[in-house]
Design brief:
Radius of gyration: 23 Å
CATH topology of the largest domain: Mitochondrial carrier fold
Largest sheet: none
Structural class: mainly alpha
CATH class of the largest domain: Mainly Alpha
Number of domains: 2
Shape: globular
Strand content: under 5%
Helix content: over 70%
Distance between the termini: 58 Å
Length: 326
């Protein structure tokens, strides 16, 4: 099956029969039937504007999702950290939220701020039938940029979720003094191992389904439709990457004890001591959390992007009007 295209134009002046023309168009659609995108002729790419709008939309979406779903994330983390017959503690499910938001806001803003302009640039570079690679690549690049903020934030958050610390500032000071700078980036390799595939796959699935949906509906999608697609993309990607998430959690919360010597040793130890099923610990809360989170995130993201896009003409017109007055 070939790729779907948002705009299919068939031009053949030698065909005068309406039926023949219709047949040619249908054949063109069949040949291009799996989620590629044609961006067509557009104005020169405005990198800075796309970066700015991505930062605003991404930061907004990230904060809304994190605040709404933090308790589910805490339960997931405690399930993954539990060993043997340890009981799950349901107290303090919002532990570390404030400190986490300090990192989530810039991380989400940076991710979308990189993703959106890179996606648009890559869609102009890649052939029309390879738009999925543009989305995958842009998602991975956004993940790499955001990881510089995400990892220390995640380390502090998970230490607080597992009740090792009572305040984010105290956690940062202790980790920095006892474990050094490397302590704040504990599990960085496993984080990238989880988040780069996650970001790339989730955004690719989301974008490709939207393209196909738009082509079928022949219109722009509304917020509930974007949210539903986001939920599906998030839940599916969350389930696939759960083993990577378990590994990342174990490496991040081990502290200075260094129970695991690395990613491979972590996997081998978990399987040896707890069995292969331990790599799927927390899959239920993770799928629920990321599914709902994907729904909220992409719904808020698209709404924010649309709001900012609608502001562009008004701002430009106002600017021109002011210049004429001068």
């Amino acid at each position: 099956m070939g790729p779907l295209t948002l705009s299919v134009t068939v031009q053949d002046s030698s065909i005068s029969s309406p039926d023949a023309c219709t047949t040619r168009k249908q054949n063109s659609l069949v040949r291009n039937s799996f989620a590629s995108v044609s961006i067509g002729e557009e104005n020169p790419f405005d990198f800075l504007r796309s970066l700015f709008e991505g930062v605003i939309a991404g930061g907004t979406a990230g904060v809304v999702v994190e605040t709404a779903l933090y308790p589910i994330d805490t339960i997931k983390t405690r399930l993954q950290a539990a060993r043997g017959g340890e009981k799950l503690v349901f107290k303090g499910l919002y532990s570390g939220l404030a400190g986490n938001l300090v990192g989530v806001l810039p991380a989400s803003a940076l991710f979308v701020g990189v993703y959106e302009p890179m996606k648009q640039k890559l869609l102009r570079v890649f052939p029309e039938n390879l738009s999925a690679f543009a989305h995958l690549t842009a998602g991975a690049l956004g993940g790499i940029a955001a990881s510089l903020i995400r990892v220390p934030t995640e380390v502090v958050k998970q230490r607080m979720q597992t009740r090792q610390f009572t305040s984010a500032s105290g956690a940062v000071r202790y980790i920095a003094s006892k474990e050094g700078f490397r302590g704040l980036y504990a599990g960085y390799g496993s984080f990238l191992l989880r988040d780069l595939p996650f970001d790339a796959i989730q955004f690719c699935i989301y974008e490709q389904i939207r393209i196909g949906y738009k082509l079928a509906a022949r219109r722009d999608l509304n917020d509930p439709e974007n949210a539903l697609i986001g939920a599906f993309a998030g839940a599916l990607t969350g389930a696939i990457t759960t083993p990577l998430d378990v590994i990342k959690t174990r490496l991040m919360i081990q502290g200075s004890g260094n129970q695991y010597k690395g990613i491979v040793d972590c996997v081998q130890t978990i399987i040896k001591e707890e069995g292969p099923s331990a790599l799927l610990k927390g899959v239920g809360p993770r799928v629920l959390w990321i599914g709902i989170g994907g729904s909220i995130f992409f719904g808020v993201l698209e709404s924010s992007k649309r709001f900012l896009a609608e502001r562009r003409p008004a701002l430009a017109q106002s600017s021109k009007s002011d210049k004429h007055k001068e």
